[in-house]
């Protein structure tokens, strides 16, 4: 079956009630028929459920669906996107290892890499996301992992996954890709050579701003190490959140088609606007890495970003004059959202660090929702006229 059909049809085993929609397994622990079965489960001789910090049928259904969509061997779900990213680092890196990352990444990921990994003796270095020729030069003898976002948050830089994968394989490195912005229906990094793929399922995968969740999929041997780390340290995804996220995957493909169509219409409508210095969207021919977008993405996703010509003051006026769009610390919702990365998601970066990844004072990030495209465009245009 097609991965989309497979993901929709994957489910927990039907109970004696013969339910069509998977039930919610809201329990902390699971029972055994006898002492031997319990011993075997704790000895990892069986896959029986023991405790919901380790595994849960509702969580496993979500994982299995994500594995099918991404074309992965295995997966593990966590309580949030950041716990998925942190788990993928800490389970596979040790003191003395070196992490090579693109410089344009989510603000909290930057904090983990620069503030917390060094406390465990893990070194890091950044390379420009838009300069692939510098990647191989930055590899050290102790480099263990390459970490990338594509498209990046919030600047929408694109990284040629095939090219980076070739470098990773040449040097026997783990390629770890944050696929949150694209989602598995728009981009499958494993098809281009990625070893691991991480998601904040809170965003497009949930798609309605309801629950938190994270997931890591990829090679079975790597996922096993991540599972052992997370099983002991406890970033478990709740069964309820997993049940919600699993249901959301059934509509991910059709939602992302609408998000992408709306975003492309918005980008075309705003490109060249006198109040906008520049605008980026992966499926616009003007995007610097448009060729890469066409090669590895099904559509451009649901994020549009632009720089207001008037800088910080114009940015504040623009946000304050929006009538329909929401101002909130999220993205990937059915409702369109506007944010100012320099003062929110990337506020903890220094001004120099922000400018190095094109997070300028007037940068606006639009998470394009499922409203009618005319209403989204109309609200943004009227806000532009008043800023």
Automatic annotation (TrEMBL):
Function as written in the Swiss-Prot or TrEMBL entry: Catalyzes the formation of L-homocysteine from O-succinyl-L-homoserine (OSHS) and hydrogen sulfide.
Keyword Transferase: yes
Family: Belongs to the trans-sulfuration enzymes family. MetZ subfamily.
InterPro entries on file: Cys/Met-Metab_PyrdxlP-dep_enz, Cys_met_metab_PP, O-succ-hSer_sulfhydrylase, PyrdxlP-dep_Trfase, PyrdxlP-dep_Trfase_major, PyrdxlP-dep_Trfase_small
EC number: 2.5.1.-
Record note on quaternary structure: Homotetramer.
GO CC annotation: cytoplasm
Cofactor dependency: pyridoxal 5'-phosphate
Pathways per UniProt: Amino-acid biosynthesis; L-methionine biosynthesis via de novo pathway; L-homocysteine from O-succinyl-L-homoserine: step 1/1
Gene: metZ
Reactions performed catalytically: O-succinyl-L-homoserine + hydrogen sulfide = L-homocysteine + succinate
Keywords per UniProt: Amino-acid biosynthesis, Methionine biosynthesis, Pyridoxal phosphate, Transferase
Pfam family, one: Cys_Met_Meta_PP
PTM annotation (N6-(pyridoxal phosphate)lysine): residues: 203
Source organism superkingdom: Bacteria
GO molecular function: carbon-sulfur lyase activity; pyridoxal phosphate binding; transferase activity, transferring alkyl or aryl (other than methyl) groups
Keyword flag Membrane: no
Name this protein carries in UniProt: O-succinylhomoserine sulfhydrylase
Single Gene Ontology BP annotation: homocysteine biosynthetic process
